[in-house]
Amino acid sequence: MNVRRIKYARLQMRLLRRRKIYTLAVRLVSLMASWRGWQIPMVRHATLAIVLPLFWLALTTPLNEENQLIFALINIGAMFFLRNISGRYITQVLIVLSLITSTRYLYWRITETMVFDNFLNGFFGTGLFLAELYAWIVLALGFFQAAWPLERKPIPLDPDSSTWPTVDIFIPSYNEPLSVVRTTVFGALAIDWPKDKINVYVLDDGRRDEFRLFCEEVGVGHITRTENNHAKAGNINAALTKTNGEFVAIFDCDHVPTRTFLQVTMAWFLKDKKLGMLQTPHHFFNPDPFEKNLKTFKTVPNEGELFYGLLQDGNDLWNATFFCGSCAILRRKAILDVGGIAVETVTEDAHTAMKMHKLGYTTAYLAVPQAAGFATESLGGHVGQRIRWARGMAQIFRIDNPFLVKNLELPQRFCYANAMLHFFYGLPRIVFLTAPLAYLFFSAEVIQASAYTIALYAIPHLMHANITNSRIQGEFRHSFWAEVYESVLAWYIFRPTLIAVINPKLGKFNVTAKGGVNEKEYFDWNIAKPYLILMTLALAGFVVGLLKIFFAENPDVDTLTLNLIWTIYNLTILGASVAVANESQQLRGSHRVPMKIPAALRSMSGRSYVCETSDYSDGGVGLMMPTDLREEFKVGDAVRLALHRGEDEFVFDAVVTMNRGERMGVKFSDMNVKQSIDFVQCTFSRADTWVVWSDGRKLDKPMVSLKLVLMMGGAGFKILFNKMYEGKTLMFKRISTSLFNKILSKKS
Length: 748
Description:
With 748 residues, the protein is α+β, with helices and mostly antiparallel strands. It has 23 helices and 18 strands. The longest helix has 46 residues, at 702-747. The protein is globular, with a radius of gyration of 30 Å. It starts with a helix and ends with a helix.
């Protein structure tokens, strides 16, 4: 017993020493990372001069399998050691380690695995290598773009408002219903800015009398034109000739601005006279199709959060912020100097920003949500929107290639190139989803190396890329979700980008539908066709692989196993893609937005109860009551609701629509224009409405994220099985009914 205690005590001592050594190492690295000397240019240049030769040696030195294993283990160990140490300089070290590992993998692929002995090997092998080369370029450009976000903050305006500039608010619309546009107009009217220095205009390309009458009623401008040339860009350019504000703020017709929008943003223009455009995030108060159909709203970042949460902030460091078409302010002189909003492509916004940069104007990004709107409600609408973006970026790449145009700085070229090349992921993603099938079906060796050697180079490359991206992007994009987003869209953006590169004049601007409803849950078989075909091929390949392992003569079990594991991962991603195509029911045309603010509910008898809102929409409010009030308020009772904004109180007539004791819902009675603006000021346009939107959401943990994606993949297979079973049952019922009717008709 004493011997066991002694051994246990010694083990405890060894563990304690190791923990102390680890803690000391972490502190040492943290001190080195926070050393002020890194801010001295000479120190950085000297470090770079030492690191670059070592970087080259790490990439090109040939190693046997044993030494490559040691190299990989050291690199992975360093990654796991550094990943939990905070600091931006540590992030730069992780980026360097990731680039070393990934570039070494690519160098090995080029120098040792690209000699093919037949056509099939060469065809499939070259296709996979080109897809990997594309992925490496996007990885490197992404690291450059996101390595050091600027994190620009609002600055105060001059207290003397007489020095503030004049601003025109443009709200372009084409075929959207007035119910969508109305709230945006009320939000624009509520913007806190001197009334003699702000004008609101609805740019109505639909030329609708209903809109004209509404604009006259609320006192905003209604601008139309006789044709619809160049879609949204032409609409804005036409309005520029009929207005004269020094600055133009543009909001899509479903993006409701907060009352502080100009207060937060405008000071940067007064500080920087060359600032041509300032962009704020596109924020959405309803779930997009991924969040809605996969039930991940507010738990997993949506597809756009990486761009608006991180990449635009990274662009800002390099004076490469893009104009995104809405929630932005532009200097009128800058717009006119570049010839108006660009009309050569269907992504007129990014193209306009590039033209400003070429003329020497600066752009800026303020990562403070100051407006919110509708995300696309259906996967079909989402796909259509992304097709337009992809086509437009490919058009710019063809017409104004960032590597070839004049007057752009090198960092700007990199940022624009990454944004454009991102939308070329369609074909590479399809290649990655089908690459293992080349070996499973045709025994084509796409990488001329053993499975063990491939693992020695590929696993460190994949681990480093994922862990480093998780550290950089973890707040805005969870691990493995990029594969889901890209797989859903890959087939649909592959063709438009290819066509746009060949002939950039083809294709037209399509308006994204907003504010729709789904009467019932349904599976979008049309959208899901590409995923179903790929899934069928992958399942067939998996079965063939298993048959080869068990029944083929002298099978290469290691290579087959590697390709089967790859196929299982692809099936998981395709399963999640199928799950996205299962459209959830959505009966509300107006979405409820969570919000907690003080309120008071008054019955018509005069009793008043202090309470708190739980959510709101443009038609009503959800309330949390202090006690069970089922006896006090009945469904259908007329009530008065008091909402507060600061010290101001606003009272609205309403009707009780739901009463569950401590939870109550009220629907507003008809409100006049002033009441509508007051309500928008209390809710959509509050200064703090969107600032804490993502509070409480957990940061990315790769293994947790992988588990969730696996669950989504399984859910996709379950949905598909159920839909197929329902289809067979329905078919059986139809056949049975038909036979029964025939029998009855014969008897009669």
